[in-house]
Every structure is written in structure tokens, then in C-alpha cells.
Design goal:
It is a single chain. The protein has helices at residues 9-34, 98-104; strands at residues 60-62, 84-92, 132-133, 136-143, 148-153, 159-166, 171-177, 198-205, 208-214, 228-233, 238-242, 254-256, 259-264, 272-277, 283-288, 293-299, 302-307, 310-317. A six-stranded mixed sheet has the order 1-7-6-5-4-3, with no helix packed on it. Strands 2-18-17-16 form a four-stranded antiparallel sheet, with no helix packed on it. Helices cover 10% and strands 35% of the residues. The protein starts with 8 loop residues before the first helix and ends with a strand. It is globular. By secondary structure, the chain is mainly beta. The protein contains two helices and 18 strands.
Length: 318
């Protein structure tokens, strides 16, 4: 018995179609392997946004290590007209009567009271502001023109993280980790537990964040590398300038027009108010005071300054 070698057309057609489909599949696979970007699974994952409605979803930006200038502050060359301060009065205080001083002159720090279990304070915060970031506590809340700046840290003398929060939109605009700002490159080993610097105050003007960092012990413990002001562009996250050392360890600083007024002092150290060019951080003037500045608060055409043992009033001359 013999078999015909001719394959009927009705059988050959499906075989040919199958071969063509298989060839097309192999060709598509080869092209896909050469260009994996076409595969949605292989595409890069979306990066976390700096803007979020949840503090835990904000992309935390660890700021680069800043310079740590040393040496006593020096007045630089002025590039802009500076306002001046004229002394109106200087009166001894009772050291512990700061609340009475604030009430007498109807002054207050522009901040929200935050909860503090150690002082049995419940705080007075908008209920949308988180009381913690991961394991860090909210230690300071500073309302600005269009945002609120929030400091978080392991305790109230260790503020490390700064967030910008918009109450109107319920969005966090950015989050900064100041880890690289906390410890100077040199310090006395025996004073290690005292020289960690923390965020002490901040002001946001448009896209520029001005922030002070300092520790609360003698300057010599950190080899004079303490108490700085820094300006950061919060659009680009670029550091614009860093002040000289030992210019700002008061509870706050203020911005009046194109200058920053801040203060530094400590036991057995020089005590001064400083006027800085807010565009460059250059010291434009300094005013000696009797003890360490604590509060610097403008009211109308006057500047009220409380130091450790003396209350000052200056006239602001524009």
C-alpha cells in the first residue's frame, strides 16, 4: 500500500497560518527584549512627591552638609542700605519675668502652642497638624503668610525635621532632614552630648527659607562652630548662603524689609544683636548688649529685645 505525498490544501492552510503566527510572536518578543522601555512593568517607578496630603508620604530631602565657618563674627561690606537701631531704653529685668514682659508690651512669639506632656500643656493647634512624624514629636509650629513651618524631633531640645504645611490646601509642600547640620566637624569629645545643634527658628518668604540652628552650651565646646543662619531656596532645595558662626542663638530672629535682625550670647561670651543682609547673610552691623538676647520682637516703629537680664527698646530707623 502506498500513500500519496500530496498534502490537501485544506490541511496545508491551517499549518501555514500557524507558522506565520508563531514567527510573528517570536519577532515581537525579540523587539520587546531590545526595547524593554515599551514594557509598562519595566518602566521606572514614579518617585515620591515632595507634595502630599500625608506627612508620612512626603519625600524627605536630606540636606547636604553645610560649611561650618569658625571665628568671631565680623562686619562685612554692606551692599544695600541698612536700617539702623537707636536705643530708647534699657532696664534690668527679674530674669524669670518674661511672661509679664510680654504681657506688658502686648507681645508674643508668632507660633502655635504645641502639646507638651512634661509641662502639662495641651497646645492650641489646628487639628490637621500631625503631632508626630514617625517617632519624632512635634516641637514647634510657626505660622507664616501662606504656610506653617513644623519642627519635629526626638524631644523638645532636638528639633531635626522641618516641614512646610499649607492649612488651606491641607498639603505638605516639602520636608527637610537637617541631620547634616546637627554636629560640627570638630568638638570637644567630653562635651559630645551637649553640642548637637537643633532647629531654633525659621521664616519663609516666597521661595526662600531662613532657618537658625544652634546648641545650648559654650561655643568652645564645638570649637566656635555654632549658632548659624542659613538661607535655602525651597523650589530648588539649594543652599543660598550660610552666615558666620555665633550670630543667632536667641529664641527667634526677625526680618524687616531687606535685613535680618538676630542675636547671640552666652555666659562669659560676647553678647550682640546682629543686622544681616538677608540676600547674602553678610553682617552689616552689630550692637552690644549686656547679656544673651532671648526675644527680638518688632512692634510698629520699635524693636523690643529681651536679654537674660535686661529689657531693651530700640527705635527702627528706615
Amino acid at each position: 500500500m502506498t500513500f500519496s505525498k500530496q498534502i490537501p490544501i485544506r490541511v496545508f492552510g491551517p499549518i501555514l497560518l500557524g507558522l506565520l503566527l508563531a514567527f510573528a510572536a517570536v519577532l515581537a518578543l525579540d523587539q520587546h527584549q531590545e526595547n524593554p522601555a515599551n514594557d509598562p512593568v519595566a518602566a521606572p517607578e514614579a518617585q515620591p512627591s515632595t507634595i502630599s496630603s500625608s506627612i508620612d508620604q512626603v519625600q524627605m530631602i536630606v540636606l547636604d552638609p553645610p560649611p561650618f565657618p569658625q571665628g568671631p563674627p565680623e562686619i562685612g561690606e554692606a551692599t544695600i542700605p541698612s536700617l539702623t537701631l537707636s536705643l530708647l531704653s534699657a532696664n534690668p529685668n527679674q530674669i524669670t519675668d518674661e511672661d509679664a514682659w510680654l504681657a506688658q508690651h502686648q507681645l508674643s512669639l508668632p507660633q502655635y502652642p504645641v502639646p507638651n506632656s512634661f509641662q502639662q500643656l495641651s497646645g492650641e493647634l489646628p487639628n490637621t497638624i500631625p503631632l508626630a512624624y514617625q517617632d519624632a514629636l512635634l516641637v514647634q509650629a510657626l505660622p507664616q503668610a501662606t504656610t506653617t513651618l513644623l519642627f519635629y524631633g526626638n524631644h523638645f531640645s532636638e528639633a531635626r525635621y522641618l516641614f512646610s504645611y499649607s492649612e488651606s490646601s491641607n498639603l505638605f509642600n516639602y520636608g527637610y532632614d537637617f541631620e547634616n547640620y546637627l554636629l560640627s566637624p570638630e568638638y570637644k569629645p567630653e562635651d559630645r552630648e551637649f553640642v548637637q545643634q537643633q532647629l531654633t527658628w525659621a521664616i519663609q518668604e516666597a521661595e526662600i527659607l531662613y532657618v537658625s540652628t544652634a546648641h545650648a552650651t559654650y561655643a568652645e565646646s564645638s570649637k566656635g562652630m555654632n549658632a548659624y543662619l542659613t538661607a535655602i531656596n525651597t523650589d530648588t532645595h539649594e543652599r543660598l548662603w550660610r552666615s558666620q558662626s555665633l550670630v543667632c542663638n536667641a529664641k527667634n530672629f526677625v526680618i524687616i524689609e531687606n535685613v535680618i535682625i538676630c542675636g547671640y550670647g552666652f555666659t562669659a561670651e560676647p553678647d550682640y544683636l546682629y543686622i544681616l543682609d538677608k540676600k547674602t547673610g553678610t553682617i552689616m552691623d552689630q550692637i552690644s548688649v549686656t547679656s544673651a538676647p532671648e526675644y527680638i520682637l518688632p512692634k510698629g516703629s520699635e524693636l523690643f529685645v529681651r536679654t537674660y537680664n535686661t529689657d531693651y527698646v530700640f527705635s527702627i530707623n528706615r
